[in-house]
TrEMBL record:
Family membership noted in the UniProt record: Belongs to the aspartate/ornithine carbamoyltransferase superfamily. ATCase family.
Gene from which this protein is expressed: pyrB
Binding site for carbamoyl phosphate: 58-59, 108, 136, 139, 264-265
Protein name (Swiss-Prot/TrEMBL): Aspartate carbamoyltransferase
Keyword rRNA processing (UniProt): no
Organism: Acidiphilium rubrum
Annotated keywords: Pyrimidine biosynthesis, Transferase
Oligomer status and interactors: Heterododecamer (2C3:3R2) of six catalytic PyrB chains organized as two trimers (C3), and six regulatory PyrI chains organized as three dimers (R2).
Amino acid sequence: MRLPTRHLLGIENLHPRDISALLDLAESYALLNRSGKTRRDVLRGRTLINLFFEDSTRTRTSFELAGKRLGADVINMSVSTSSVSKGETLLDTAATLNAMNCDLLVVRHKASGAPALLAQKVDAAVINAGDGMHEHPTQALLDALTIRRHKGTLEGLTIAICGDIAHSRVARSNILLLIAMGSQVRVVGPPTLIPSGIEQFGVSVFHDMREGLRDADIVMALRLQTERMSGGMIPSAREFFTFYGLDAAKLAVAKPDALVMHPGPMNRGVEIDSQVADDMTRSVIREQVEMGVAVRMAVLDVLARTALRNA
Ligand code: NCD
C-alpha cells in the first residue's frame, strides 16, 4: 500500500481507502503478535526516535515495541533529560536529530501543529503521537481496528464519544476517521466541554448521557483533560461522575452488546466506573492497548516503504 504523504500528521488527509488498507495491515500484525513471531527484516538498519515533550505510557511504549518488533534501532528521548530543558528550541532539536540520520520520528508535543512544523524541517518521516488538542491519528486507527474486529465493519455503527470532547485530540481524530468510514458519531457531554459548531463535522450533540447512549453500538469514555482547561469547566469531579460518568445504569440504555472503550489513562470514578471498565464481557480497553502495537507497526512499515520509494 502507499500513503499520499511522507508523514502521518493526522487523519484529516487520509482517504477512506488508506484507512482501510492501514487497518488491514494492522490486523495482520495483530495476528503476528499473537503468534509470538516478529518481522525484524522490515525496519532493519533503520532508526526510530521517540521524541516526547509530554507524558505518555501506552503511546511511547507501544511505538518502542512496534519499532523493535520490526527490527529498527529505537531511541527514546524524553524531554526533561534532553537539551530542550536547557532552552534548545524545537527546531534546533530537529536539526540535531536530522544530523543523526533518523528515519522515523515519533513526536508528542503540547502545541497543536508542532509535528507538522518538524515535518517541514527534517528528512525523517514524522508521526504525530498527539499534538495539543489537535490530533492523535494512531489512537483513532487503533480504536477503529478494535471496533472492526468486534463488529466486522465501521459503517452504520452508532458510536457515542463521551466526556471532555473540547480538549481531546483523541475525540477529534476519532470523529474524522469514523465519519469518513460511515459511522454515526454522537458526542455526549456538558455544554462547557463540547466545542460550539462541532456539528459541522457531521456529529450529533447530546447533553444527556441516557439520550446520547440510547441504542449505541460503541460507548467511548474520555478523560477530563484538566491540564488543558483554563478554568472551572465542571463543578466537581464528583458531580461530573453523577451526570456523565459511564456506569452500569447509564450503559444499560446502549445496545446489549455495546462495547466500552477508553484510550487511557483512566480516572476511575470520574469518567468511568471500575465495574464497567473491568467488565470483560463489555470492555475492550485492554484490547485497545494490544491493537495499539499492531497499528503502530503498520504505520511504521508503510511510512518506511513510502520513504524508500521517494528516495
Ligand atoms: C490520550 C492522549 O494522550 O491524548 N492518551 C493516549 O494516548 N492513550 C488521552 C488522554 O491523555 O486522556
